Amino acid sequence: MLFAKRAAGAPFGLKFVQLASQPMKSMKDPDQKPFVISFWHTTKNALNGIALAAESERSFRIHVLAMVVVTILGWYLELAMLEWALLFLTYAVMMGLELVNSAIESFADFLHPEEHPAIKRVKDIAAGAVQVASIFSIAIAIVLFGPKIAALF
């Protein structure tokens, strides 16, 4: 089944159409660039976004510093492979959410530069997502590093 146009009386306003009833279209776009070039442009844009966040967002820089310190501590305490995997997953969640939060804030400021209760709500909720991830990242660090640090004393 395939979702098509909205139709009155259909569940959630969607009309179901059988895939076989749709004419086959070529998936290849004639103007499409080769994969390597397309991938390079996408990667370049993503790295530019990370650089913009690092340049303009204090909290992003703080998270990068924390990531470096925790990585050095993990190396010193000789974390196991699974512990490293959990740590890298935590880094990915934290940094990803920080980037999404920065993008939401920038877009909200672009749409409505003046203070507005709805914009404040959106920004506060996005910041709350980062805060929740930060709290759980600290909990993960305590679980991973607490016993190892305690064993040193």
Q: Care to give the gist of this entry?
A:
The protein has 153 residues and is mainly alpha-helical. It has helices spanning 35-56, 58-76, 81-111, 117-152, and strands spanning 2-6, 14-17.
Order of the strands making up the biggest sheet: 1-2
Q: Measure the end-to-end span.
A: 62 Å
How do the helices and strands follow one another from N- to C-terminus? Answer: EEHHHH
- Unreliable residue runs: 1-7, 10-20
Structural Rg: 23 Å
**Quaternary:** single chain
Q: State the helical fraction.
A: over 70%
Number of helices: 4
Return the structural class.
mainly alpha
**Please, what is the average pLDDT?**
86
Give a short account of the largest sheet.
2 strands, antiparallel
What's the overall geometry?
Answer: flat
User: What is the strand content?
Assistant: 5-15%
Strand elements, count = 2
Structural description of this entry:
Helix content is 71%, strand content 6%. The chain is mostly helical and 153 residues long. A two-stranded antiparallel sheet has the order 1-2. The chain starts with a strand and ends with a helix.
